[in-house]
Amino acid sequence: MATLKLLLLPGDGIGPEVMAEVKRLIGWMNKHGMERFETEEGLVGGCCYDAHKVAITDDTMAKARAADAVIFGAVGGPKWDSVPYDARPEAGLLRLRKDLGLFANIRPAICYPALAESSSLKRDVVDGLDIIILRELTGGVYFGEPKTITDLGNGQKRAIDTQVYDTYEIERISRVAFELARKRRNKVTSMEKRNVMKTGVLWNEVVTQVHAREFKDVTLEHQLADAGGMQLVRWPKQFDVIVTDNLFGDMLSDVAAMLTGSLGMLPSASLGEVDPKTRKRKALYEPVHGSAPDIAGTGAANPIAMIASFAMALRYSFGLGNEADLIDQAIAAALARGLRTADIKSEGTTLVGTTQMGEAIIAELEKLAA
Ligand SMILES: NC(=O)c1ccc[n+]([C@@H]2O[C@H](COP(=O)([O-])OP(=O)(O)OC[C@H]3O[C@@H](n4cnc5c(N)ncnc54)[C@H](O)[C@@H]3O)[C@@H](O)[C@H]2O)c1
């Protein structure tokens, strides 16, 4: 059995609290001989600023490059609101994304049956929902040049952002989408605005070509991103994998997030290119939520998003789909037993803290693995 090297970056606020439950899970998996994980830890965000005056050190970056996967908690908090811009806590995450070339952001929107009532939509619309929003993460309008605000001298200013996509950027994100779909329900929906944007025209053309050349067995459908947003709240179960650019992906993934009820439930993965020599790809796994300073230190944080992010690492970095399925089933079983952290509490359920939820998930895992 090969040793799998993980770099754990707990970060700030509730980051270390939810990461503790992932460590418990790793310990359990190592003990049961399911896999052999070797872990290292590093500082990122505000805690790294306090120690080193930067949001992430070169030494930690070297460890991130050497690791098979990076497991990230959350960063930030009011304590660091006035630190220099380049050293702000989020700069650590942005450097990881940039230096590791993490261009593909995978955000599943899964609605556990036990939580269907927490969604703002009707139960039958979201119950059992399991879709993925795949967002291009390193290109598009957030990074395109020119990006300026110019004083026009007549009391007016002009702001410019530039949406840019090259063929290779669309090709590689499309491939990730089709490969994901092949392991799921075999359907990709590509979203852009080809009716008003040139980047939308190219996006549509390139996705169509990659499909025709390499992935004919997968069903491909195109929707305009605005209509797609509407469909996402009308009948989200029509989708399997949605692939879209950085800007639309930012918005659509937040819309999809709300379908499932709570921020504390949502995992994510960011993947880089496959290295042609090692066949491995750089990857970072993190919950969608932030450091939740309002509840940090109270032991109330929901660890499910963090644990589900680790399950994504098993699935996407290590090909351990069965083990990832087991963890997802253990989460569903703990919820079905009526256990709830405060953020997902409803009438008639039992309130538990971070540690109890982590322990309950392992107890369910224990039963499932037996
Ligand atoms: N990737 C990241 O590290 C990341 C992402 C978003 C925000 N942030 C940072 O986190 C800090 C707080 O930001 P925010 O309040 O806008 O967002 P947040 O996600 O930290 O919190 C939003 C709300 O959701 C609750 N919440 C979040 N995660 C939870 C969990 N696991 N269990 C229970 N409740 C949970 C919080 O208590 C809060 O009420 C800021 O400094 C922000 O910059 C970091």
In short:
The protein contains twelve helices and 14 strands. It is α/β, with parallel strands linked by helices and 370 residues long. The longest helix has 17 residues.
Question: Any overview of this molecule?
Answer:
The chain has 370 residues and is an alpha/beta fold. The protein has helices at 15-31, 46-52, 58-66, 89-99, 123-126, 167-182, 198-214, 225-234, 246-259, 304-318, 321-336, 354-369, and strands spanning 3-11, 36-41, 69-74, 104-110, 130-136, 144-151, 157-162, 187-192, 219-224, 241-244, 267-274, 281-287, 339-340, 350-351. The strands form 3 sheets. Strands 2-1-3-12-11-4-5-10-8-9 form a 10-stranded mixed β-sheet, with helices on both faces. A hairpin with a 5-residue loop joins strand 6 and strand 7. Helix 1 (15-31) crosses helix 10, helix 6 (167-182) packs across helix 7 (198-214) and helix 10 (304-318) packs antiparallel against helix 11 (321-336). The mean pLDDT is 95. Nicotinamide-adenine-dinucleotide is lined by residues 14, 18, 74-77, 93, 263-264, 286, 289-295, 301-302, 305, 341, 343.
